């Protein structure tokens, strides 16, 4: 490939590309709001047209029980790997509308940033993949690899129908690598490839004591207080350093290699800046792990809420009838959410305080995800970024959970490459969402290059 | 005194007495509601008339910043002790009105029980003292002791102005014994003299972490969670048996004599019945003390409420910015509320978890109260009950706190005798409040007898 020719193509077509992206962004495809059902269909049709214009084939809209899935492919690179590109055409709601400087569905470029709902999350990033394919097909008439697109309309509402779709269309979606551009870079000018996410498991604990609230004067000291009981349970989960005391909790935690940890250390994470940002005077957690490591490669157990007793102003001397707490764990490879929930339950059972009954309710679970960071597809993405940005690529994990990524990993059994072009400052899910066009321009080149990098793998 | 003559007097005047009490009960003297301000004045004036009719002297209404205090005396028993009778003429609100079987301020006798707001708490019991005096003065022209009445109109709203009034009128109120009839018996036919109450001290603990709620995926494991921090603090307060771990907490707790504890054991408290009533399968607390002892003679520390994080349905993976808890201690003699609050604060300070800030707010305090159970005035009350009811009197304490009792004890330095005629089933503060007239009839005789018992003390 002539990289200069590709770069020139993107320069020559920049205005056209931005105009096309704006037309995509003008469609208010808010998946959460039923009044936008027709907009969802319109956005799906917009994609079909864009796919066909790019030279992709077999473009189709597949109905689901919710919003449709859009598919297209180009499969003429015989003997070469197949890349599956996942993204979503739905966007978040726009409330509070009055905080937007310009209307969310009237895209506007200011200061080389494109403002609109979906500009970065995720229409802008999906669009870049389409245009990269289009450029190569226009310039060379062919692609170095096979490509499939699967773009869904329900990511912002938790992808309720996608796992079933993937399950039922395994042959259609069969590939060698999945590429997702729906995350962010390390910072301006600092490209990152994310290769791991934490999973999720959680329970609600309900403690019941006396059948009604009691007067703490009349009964205090002789009746177990459900609030004390729940405190006793919750305290038993962690030690003062945050180390989780649930038996077997760490059994399946994969050791992370020294090399990988050295890479984390080399990221020069600015702890003081971070502490200032979130407003804490000291960080917390396992002393053998850095801030970044605690959030990327270590599992957690967090209390997300406690309720019980009197919460008004002042004093009420009540011994409450019940107390409740919600806890969630972030999991790392190879922890299994079902196994962790079973261990949490066993822990509560064996730490049940005297004088109360305890009930447990399970929450939805998500598996952790990991593509080995030295996987060729991950390293290749790093090379593509470095060629365009001129700096080494950060290989990162993320502390959060994207259940659909784990589902892809699990159902299709493929390496997933999270190749994001967003920035943390771009107001995903908030008013004035925008996309830095520097990363739009560079991203087109990174994606084009990556297809050639993947072609060299095997 | 001729006890038979007194008994006959009460029998002869029963209808008149009940009619008079009903006229008192018809006045809706709800201290909490400002629209009843004139009713408060009317109730005070009703008392003045009743005092004068009884033969009491110096009857007067003393204004306070709130509702007035009513005073009267009879001081012609030279060389004899003076008994100060405290009570209140205000009543609780009547909501929810629709649950009353008959209107709260239209007294009605059904099944030998007098139904009306204030029938038992406390107009009925105050009225008995007035009529006992009246009977003796009518029959004999004199009393065996000196008597003073102080009846306030703000007990149901926490007696905000009474301590100042008592402080400023120490000469007027100077006495040898304070008698209060505003509590209950052990049960039907089971008289009780209460000689001790627990005190109260409490704090609110506010834990602050990051400046805003954080995503538990992005930050979980590296930032202290205020909910975990408050759990750590709360758990540090007690051990699993309920024993309080605050340094010096038990230092000033008076030992209770074996004899007194034998008296408690002899009360034949029905633990199984109590457990069934409040709906617990097992009781809780210090193993060296009985259920009754834990609530009467042992101090407590109870969490009354915890708030923090997400309390809606389902899951929200938040690491909250703050958490809060309210705790109160019930105190026993000679614990001092100020000292206990200082110890609680020192405890929190020395158990402050890493990574958060902690603020403490103090609540109102109340001292514990104790008249030694073998005090002659207490034992005399027991004899008077036994003569009338024909069964031994229980000498009890109560787990709750009545701040005004401790204030009397503290300001006037007098033994307080809690000589109640109510029953726990009589719906104090609730719809269908009533008073068993058996205890009205017997109570008149107990009170009359008690004045002669006191006359024999010294």
UniProtKB/TrEMBL annotation, chains A, B:
GO molecular function terms noted in the UniProt entry: metal ion binding; peptidase activity
InterPro entries linked to this entry: Cyt/Met_Dipeptidase (IPR051458), Peptidase_M20 (IPR002933), Peptidase_M20_dimer (IPR011650)
SUPFAM superfamilies listed in its UniProt record: Zn-dependent exopeptidases
Domain of life: Bacteria
Name this protein carries in UniProt: Peptidase M20
Keyword Protease: yes
Gene Ontology BP annotations: proteolysis
Domain Peptidase M20 dimerisation residues, every copy: 195-354
Pfam families: M20_dimer, Peptidase_M20
Keywords: Hydrolase, Metal-binding, Protease
Keyword Coiled coil listed: no
